[in-house]
Specification:
Layout: H1 13-21, H2 25-40, H3 42-47, H4 62-80, H5 87-108, H6 122-128, H7 138-149, H8 151-167, H9 174-187, H10 193-199, H11 201-205, H12 210-241, H13 250-261, H14 267-292, H15 298-306, E1 312-314, H16 315-334, E2 348-352, E3 360-363, E4 373-377, E5 385-387, H17 388-398, H18 403-412, H19 419-424, H20 428-444, H21 451-475, H22 489-499, H23 504-516, H24 522-542, H25 548-557, H26 563-571
Parallel strand pairs: 2-4
Antiparallel strand pairs: 1-5, 3-4
């Protein structure tokens, strides 16, 4: 969907090996499209382990956007006259055609010229690619000198696109511009990202020639200066022209929703479902709180659980050992019953991340499984105590049966999936929807029968349901749930604070994210709903012949499809 590609987690060997197994006309078209994306987007190439463009950055200019759309149009034309030879081809044809068609719709809507938010826009992408750039050799750091020197040009091209929006009176909201001014100024500070990044060269790559060190320092200063100039552009040119309206509006919201789900949903019906789902989860939480202590409120139950010494882990070593134990137990219990887990996938390493951002995430295995799938916990500075009741559901979300089975199965299924299906085809509705489906499934299977563990799962489900209501309420201009006026920022923040058991600073960042990145946050919970609907449809169709293990295997073997394509592949 557009110039930005959600990359997979595969090694550079992937592209060379798949063509041996599948080489139909449609596979060839899909594989060539991946090659095109790799050439057009150095950040995508870096994300899949390719060395192509390792010394470059993406071009975010209007000309680059037009070129990407032109290339997408060519591929779509090829697909329209291509002949599918089997079911795998038919799925690829449907999914890739839908993806490219949406890409062109989003381009025609001019969304690139107002693309600015607090987490996932070119303003962040230019910097973020350095987080995944190789840094282990002298050659890597030579590439990074060029990549840092390319920051100025990448931001200049991005500014051209934003200036197009200014000329067309089609600009991002002032709220997002102000946040990005702060972010850009932080990067442009005397101890900003690029200055610190250059100082890590010695530690990352060992001894480097003095001349290269000098070049690194100079390149870091250039990149830092580029972000300083970008901050001034935002402040002096974009902010005065920026929109006073946060809401994206129904027509454009529908495009974003389709992009993040890979499916078209009735937005008004989904909003109403979100309200009802939130009420249902709160009622379920209340029931569980009463099991923890008779008559306890949700807040009182949380306090009881947080103070329970039997539900605490002390230090990252205990955390890592507990994660590994729970992960191993899930693999042992689910393999052969509800999932078919091949030997290569039975090893999932639980790791403490070297970073300290507070995130929890999964990285897939290499193509040959020489590096297994890994679940990472990035522990913030000073945090030494962890509550198992909050975190058990996260182990299932990131590991088994969540992202590990989802990603590793696609890696393993190289004989059936072309490059696009394995490397590019992904939507948060499919990926995160599956992970939430996995959490709820573990409750159904009895793995979260302890009231505390169940409350932890419901805590996350409540947040995801609340995001559906907030996101649709804001961007569709819905009336507040109180009936007085439409959703605004203050109301949205208060609503989220009442439904999320997290610090206000985190909630504030999240609400800003929802306001600036329409359709993304709801895709998790809506994706879960669609996954559950598809399973129910298949079960209804097959009756007594329904086998959940076979359903899961078939679904995961398809790779990361848009949810409309997934539904067709599994139910037709």
């Amino acid at each position: 969907m557009g110039f930005y590609v959600q990359a997979g987690t595969l090694s550079p060997q992937t592209i060379r090996r798949i063509s041996i197994s599948r080489n139909s006309q449609i596979d060839q078209i899909a594989n060539r499209w991946v090659e095109t994306i790799t050439q057009l987007s150095p950040s995508f190439a870096t994300s899949i382990g390719s060395s192509i463009g390792a010394d470059k950055l993406d071009d975010f200019s209007p000309a680059a956007q037009a070129n990407y759309a032109s290339e997408a149009k060519k591929v779509l034309a090829e697909l329209k006259v291509a002949t599918a030879v089997d079911d795998t081809d038919r799925v690829t044809l449907d999914a890739l055609s839908a993806d490219l068609s949406l890409t062109l719709e989003m381009y025609d809507a001019g969304l690139y010229r107002r693309d600015l938010n607090n987490i996932a826009s070119p303003a962040q992408a230019v910097r973020d690619v350095f987080d995944i750039s190789p840094t282990s050799s002298e050659e890597d750091w030579k590439n990074l000198v060029h990549r840092m020197n390319a920051v100025e040009g990448a931001l200049a091209g991005y500014q051209e696109s934003l200036r197009e929006g200014i000329a067309a009176n089609d600009t991002p909201a002032k709220r997002q511009v102000r946040i990005n001014i702060e972010q850009a100024l932080e990067i442009a500070g005397d101890d900003g990202f690029f200055i610190q990044f250059a100082t890590t060269a010695e530690a990352e790559a060992g001894a480097l020639p003095d001349s290269l060190k000098t070049e690194l320092v100079a390149a870091a200063k250039n990149a830092t200066s580029a972000y300083g100039n970008f901050a001034q552009f935002l402040k002096q040119e974009l902010l005065p022209a920026a929109s006073d309206v946060d809401a994206i509006g129904r027509e454009r919201y529908e495009l974003f929703s389709r992009g993040f789900l890979g499916a078209k949903v009735d937005l008004d019906a989904t909003y109403q479902w979100g309200i009802e789902e939130l009420e249902r989860v709160v009622a379920e939480q209340t029931e569980v709180a009463n099991q923890i202590r008779a008559g306890a409120s949700i807040e009182e139950a949380v306090k009881i659980l947080d103070e329970d010494p039997n539900r605490k882990l002390h230090g990252t070593s205990e955390l890592q050992a507990w994660m590994q134990k729970k992960s191993d137990e899930a693999i042992e219990s689910l393999g052969g019953t509800h999932f078919e887990i091949p030997e290569q996938m039975k090893l999932l390493e639980c790791m403490i991340a070297p970073t300290q951002s507070g995130g929890i995430y999964y990285t897939g295995p290499t193509d040959d499984f020489s590096r297994p799938g890994r679940m990472w916990w990035s522990v913030p500075p000073g945090v030494n105590e962890f509550n198992t009741w909050r975190e058990l559901t996260t182990v299932y979300h990131e590991g088994v049966p969540g992202h590990h089975l989802q990603v590793a199965q696609a890696v393993l299924n190289k004989d059936e999936l072309n490059d696009w299906r394995r490397n590019v085809s992904w939507s948060s509705g499919h990926g995160e929807g599956w992970a939430l489906y996995a959490e709820r499934l573990m409750l159904e299977l009895g793995f979260l029968s302890d009231p505390g563990d169940k409350l932890g799962m419901l805590d996350g489900q409540r947040m995801r349901a609340a995001r559906v209501v907030l996101d649709l309420g804001v961007h569709l201009g819905k009336p507040k749930l109180t009936g007085e006026g439409v959703w605004d920022f203050e109301y949205a923040l208060d609503f989220m604070l009442k439904n999320v058991n997290m610090p206000k600073e985190f909630v504030l960042f999240e609400v800003n994210r929802y306001f600036g990145w329409p359709g993304q946050a709801p895709s998790y919970k809506i994706g879960q709903r669609i996954w559950e609907q598809i399973r129910d449809e298949v079960e209804s169709k097959e009756g007594t012949f329904f086998d959940i293990k076979k359903f899961h295997k078939k679904a995961l073997n398809l790779g990361g499809l848009g949810l409309d394509s997934l539904r067709k592949a599994l139910t037709l």
